[in-house]
Amino acid sequence: MAQLISKRYAKALFDIAIETNTMDELESQVQMIHQVLESEEEFMQILQHPHILREEKMQLLKDVFSSIVSNELMGLLTLVVQKGRQEHLLEILSTFLDEVKTYKGIVTAVVISAVPLKEEQIEKIKQTLTSRIKKQIQIETQVDPSIIGGLKIRVGDRILDASIYGQLQGLKTSLYDMQLV
Question: Residue 181 has what pLDDT?
Answer without folding.
Answer: 56
